[in-house]
Amino acid sequence: MANKQIVFKAHLDVSDMNHHRYEHKDVTISLLPKEDIEHFLLKLIGYCLLPLESAFWSKTNDQPIHPDLGLQDEIGDYTLWIEVGFPSQKRLDKACQLAKKVVLITPKESEWLDNMKSYLRKRAIKVIAIDIKFLNQLQIEISKRLDWSVIIEHNKLTISNDLGYYETSLPQGCDIVY
Q1: Which of these, 132, 142, 119, lies nearest to 85 by C-alpha position?
Q2: Are 83 and 120 in contact (CB under 8 A)?
Q3: Cβ atoms 11, 26 nearer than 8 A
Q4: What pLDDT sits at residue 2?
Q5: Residues near 111 by Cβ (< 8 Å), separated by ≥ 6?
Q6: What is the DSSP letter of 4?
Q7: Which of 1, 3, 5, 173 is the most buried (most CB within 10 A)?
Q8: b or e along 146-165 (b: 16 or more beta carbons within 10 Å of the residue's beta carbon)?
């Protein structure tokens, strides 16, 4: 766990071939005091899966009524609520009450996910499980200045930067409809 907030400057070039979306965005984002690097990376990956101009990134993990990431309509209702990591069942229940669609982005190889599969299916929560080896590669190469080129095509997610090229498979049917 981090003891204080760590600030990252990120330049994101996102090519989402599935949605014919090509965006560039410079953002300043923080690793929150109670957040670990895995949660931060899952959140950043989730952010890249959304239209960058309309997506929002939760600025605090102390407010239980806000998603990690999401989209809102013009009156402020959540059209898409994204949780990352290992949220509690209570938090997911709240998300299902407040949003039209709920997506969970979590590490693929986890006992938590194995235990939650039935619940997630019943609640119709879409799960995007990210390979832990992929996350570990990104974690090793992380710096405070992130320059990511992200390509999303079919069931592949590719991230490249100055230090390397990283690719992982996404689960079939995990495309986020927004």
Answers
A1: 132
A2: no
A3: yes
A4: 43
A5: none
A6: S
A7: 5
A8: bebebbbeeeebebebeeee
Q: Are 151 and 168 in contact (CB under 8 A)?
A: no
pTM, full prediction: 0.91
Backbone φ and ψ of 44, nearest 5°: -65, -40
* Total Cβ atoms within 10 A of residue 174: 17
Contact (Cβ atoms closer than 8 angstroms) between residue 83 and residue 63: no
Mean pLDDT for each 10-residue chunk of the chain (178 residues)? Answer: 76 94 94 90 95 83 77 93 95 95 94 96 95 94 92 94 92 71
- Residue 157 is which amino acid? L
Q: What pLDDT, on a 0 to 100 scale, did the predictor assign at position 178? A: 63
The one-letter amino acid at 81: W
Q: How far apart are the first and last CA of the chain?
A: 32
Cβ atoms of 82 and 70 within 8 Å: the answer is: yes
Token code pair at residue 132: 């832990």
DSSP alpha helix (H) spans, 25-110? 37-48, 89-98
